[in-house]
Amino acid sequence: MKKNLGTTDKLVRLLVAILVLVLYLTHTISGNMALLLGFFAFIFALTSYISFCPIYWMFGINTCKVDQKKNAE
Length: 73
Fold this sequence. Notes:
By secondary structure, the protein is mostly helical. It contains four helices and no strands. The protein has helices at 7-25, 31-50, 54-59, 68-72. α1 runs antiparallel to α2. The longest helix is centred in the middle third of the chain and has 20 residues, at 31-50. The model has no long low-confidence stretch (mean pLDDT 90).
Protein backbone atom coordinates (compact mmCIF):
# COMPACT_ATOMS: atom_id res chain seq x y z
CA MET A 1 0.00 0.00 0.00
CA LYS A 2 1.64 3.24 -1.16
CA LYS A 3 1.24 6.41 0.85
CA ASN A 4 -0.94 8.94 -0.91
CA LEU A 5 -1.56 11.54 1.81
CA GLY A 6 0.73 14.49 2.36
CA THR A 7 1.48 16.17 5.67
CA THR A 8 -1.02 19.00 5.17
CA ASP A 9 -3.75 16.58 4.15
CA LYS A 10 -3.13 14.41 7.22
CA LEU A 11 -3.16 17.46 9.50
CA VAL A 12 -6.46 18.72 8.11
CA ARG A 13 -8.05 15.29 8.54
CA LEU A 14 -6.86 15.06 12.14
CA LEU A 15 -8.12 18.55 12.93
CA VAL A 16 -11.56 17.71 11.51
CA ALA A 17 -11.66 14.51 13.58
CA ILE A 18 -10.70 16.42 16.73
CA LEU A 19 -13.32 19.08 15.99
CA VAL A 20 -16.03 16.44 15.71
CA LEU A 21 -14.87 14.91 18.99
CA VAL A 22 -15.01 18.29 20.73
CA LEU A 23 -18.47 18.99 19.31
CA TYR A 24 -19.67 15.62 20.61
CA LEU A 25 -18.13 16.06 24.06
CA THR A 26 -19.66 19.53 24.43
CA HIS A 27 -23.08 18.11 23.41
CA THR A 28 -23.27 20.39 20.39
CA ILE A 29 -24.05 17.38 18.20
CA SER A 30 -26.04 14.33 19.23
CA GLY A 31 -28.17 11.54 17.87
CA ASN A 32 -27.85 10.47 14.25
CA MET A 33 -25.72 13.50 13.37
CA ALA A 34 -23.19 12.54 16.04
CA LEU A 35 -23.07 8.96 14.75
CA LEU A 36 -22.60 10.05 11.15
CA LEU A 37 -19.94 12.65 11.93
CA GLY A 38 -18.26 10.25 14.37
CA PHE A 39 -18.01 7.65 11.63
CA PHE A 40 -16.39 10.14 9.24
CA ALA A 41 -14.09 11.41 12.00
CA PHE A 42 -12.94 7.85 12.68
CA ILE A 43 -12.27 7.28 8.98
CA PHE A 44 -10.38 10.59 8.73
CA ALA A 45 -8.25 9.76 11.78
CA LEU A 46 -7.53 6.24 10.49
CA THR A 47 -6.57 7.35 6.99
CA SER A 48 -4.31 10.08 8.35
CA TYR A 49 -2.63 7.56 10.65
CA ILE A 50 -1.89 5.09 7.86
CA SER A 51 -1.25 7.86 5.26
CA PHE A 52 -3.46 6.12 2.73
CA CYS A 53 -6.89 7.07 1.40
CA PRO A 54 -8.70 4.47 -0.74
CA ILE A 55 -10.80 7.16 -2.44
CA TYR A 56 -7.66 9.05 -3.45
CA TRP A 57 -6.24 5.76 -4.75
CA MET A 58 -9.35 5.09 -6.90
CA PHE A 59 -9.09 8.53 -8.51
CA GLY A 60 -5.29 8.54 -8.79
CA ILE A 61 -4.82 11.45 -6.38
CA ASN A 62 -1.55 11.69 -4.47
CA THR A 63 -0.79 14.59 -2.10
CA CYS A 64 2.33 12.93 -0.69
CA LYS A 65 5.43 14.86 -1.77
CA VAL A 66 7.96 12.15 -0.85
CA ASP A 67 9.50 10.22 -3.74
CA GLN A 68 8.25 6.70 -3.10
CA LYS A 69 11.04 5.05 -5.14
CA LYS A 70 13.68 6.46 -2.79
CA ASN A 71 11.79 5.10 0.24
CA ALA A 72 11.56 1.62 -1.27
CA GLU A 73 15.34 1.26 -1.59
